[in-house]
């Protein structure tokens, strides 16, 4: 069991924010989902920061990789930023190789995972969500290895064609793996409780599982919550938090009580 980081103070304090995750954009393909995202960016309210909580991209093979489709996304982000929309990004299990070079080009401020923030006066701990899925032992072992700086450097040192071929193979393997599962592996509820105990009073907010929901827990006589963001298909689905409250757009989260 890995030790969780502790936070002295929230990294950001914001009056309002929008949250999305799990777009799984195939950035070398001109897809309806990419168009939906770029169009959605044109409709973001000015001065409302956008948090991208991982798996924005289906895969990532290095910031030195460019593609015309990717440039349209970078341009859409630049246009939104010109209207006062800021971006905050933490990586997911598929796009964990996104680095500072691409983030700077897109105008995304990178966040560690997990990270504590305060939105509209309420405390949140943000995470992609894969760290909570501790029942997937094979994945967690792979994750620990793949996140080593030396392993990442070795991968990124390969010539670009080799990395593109690797990404194609991984996509096929991932499809076969997901197809063999009855449903994607969900969070481990014991691990969720450990996080909630580590971060008293914060709402745990994550994506990854594609099981959009508001979960309520009773922990040390406190009512606690875990909010799960929806994945995108070809339409936008997001969470907006403003001083008046939280609104889910394009989706109705399941309500789940844990005793
Ligand atoms: Mn994920």
TrEMBL record:
Residues the record lists as binding substrate: 93-94, 136, 174, 208
Catalytic activity: UDP-2-N,3-O-bis[(3R)-3-hydroxytetradecanoyl]-alpha-D-glucosamine + H2O = 2-N,3-O-bis[(3R)-3-hydroxytetradecanoyl]-alpha-D-glucosaminyl 1-phosphate + UMP + 2 H(+)
Pfam families reported for this sequence: Metallophos (PF00149)
Positions of Mn(2+) 1 binding: 22, 24, 55, 210
KW Transport (keyword) present: no
Binding site for Mn(2+) 2: 55, 93, 128, 208
Domain Calcineurin-like phosphoesterase: residue ranges: 16-212
Keyword vocabulary terms for this entry: Cell inner membrane, Cell membrane, Hydrolase, Lipid A biosynthesis, Lipid biosynthesis, Lipid metabolism, Manganese, Membrane, Metal-binding
UniProt cofactor note: Binds 2 Mn(2+) ions per subunit in a binuclear metal center.
Group of enzyme by EC: hydrolase
UniProt xrefs under CDD domains: MPP_YbbF-LpxH
Entry EC no(s): 3.6.1.54
InterPro entries: Calcineurin-like_PHP, LpxH-like, Metallo-depent_PP-like, UDP-diacylglucosamine_Hdrlase
Gene Ontology molecular function, alphabetical: hydrolase activity
Cofactor(s) this protein requires: Mn(2+)
Subcellular compartments: Cell inner membrane
Pathway: Glycolipid biosynthesis; lipid IV(A) biosynthesis; lipid IV(A) from (3R)-3-hydroxytetradecanoyl-[acyl-carrier-protein] and UDP-N-acetyl-alpha-D-glucosamine: step 4/6
Protein family membership: Belongs to the LpxH family.
UniProt function note: Hydrolyzes the pyrophosphate bond of UDP-2,3-diacylglucosamine to yield 2,3-diacylglucosamine 1-phosphate (lipid X) and UMP by catalyzing the attack of water at the alpha-P atom. Involved in the biosynthesis of lipid A, a phosphorylated glycolipid that anchors the lipopolysaccharide to the outer membrane of the cell.
PANTHER family attached to this UniProt entry: UDP-2,3-DIACYLGLUCOSAMINE HYDROLASE (PTHR34990:SF1), UDP-2,3-DIACYLGLUCOSAMINE HYDROLASE-RELATED (PTHR34990)
HAMAP family: LpxH
Protein name per its UniProtKB record: UDP-2,3-diacylglucosamine hydrolase
Organism lineage string: Bacteria, Pseudomonadati, Pseudomonadota, Hydrogenophilia, Hydrogenophilales
Gene encoding the protein: lpxH
């Amino acid at each position: 069991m890995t030790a969780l980081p502790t936070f002295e103070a929230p990294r950001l304090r914001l009056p309002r924010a929008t949250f999305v995750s799990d777009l799984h954009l195939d950035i070398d393909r001109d897809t309806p989902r990419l168009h939906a995202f770029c169009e959605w960016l044109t409709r973001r309210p000015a001065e409302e920061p956008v948090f991208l909580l991982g798996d924005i991209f289906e895969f990532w093979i290095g910031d030195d990789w460019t593609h015309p489709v990717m440039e349209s996304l970078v341009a859409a982000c630049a246009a939104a930023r010109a209207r006062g929309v800021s971006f905050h990004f933490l990586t997911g299990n598929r796009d964990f190789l996104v680095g500072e070079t691409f983030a700077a080009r897109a105008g995304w401020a990178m966040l560690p995972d997990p990270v504590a923030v305060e939105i509209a006066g309420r405390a949140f701990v943000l995470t992609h969500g894969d760290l909570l899925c501790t029942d997937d032992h094979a994945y967690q072992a792979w994750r620990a290895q793949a996140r080593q700086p030396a392993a990442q450097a070795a991968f990124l040192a390969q010539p670009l064609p080799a990395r593109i071929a690797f990404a194609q193979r991984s996509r096929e393997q991932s499809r076969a793996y997901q197809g063999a599962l009855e449903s994607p592996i969900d969070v481990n509820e014991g691990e969720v409780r450990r996080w909630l105990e580590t971060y008293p009073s914060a709402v745990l907010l994550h994506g990854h599982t594609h099981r959009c929901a508001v979960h309520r827990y009773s922990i040390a006589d406190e009512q606690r919550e875990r909010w799960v963001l929806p994945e995108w298909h070809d339409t936008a689905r997001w969470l907006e938090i403003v001083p008046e409250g939280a609104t889910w757009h394009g989706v109705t989260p399941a309500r789940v009580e844990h005793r």
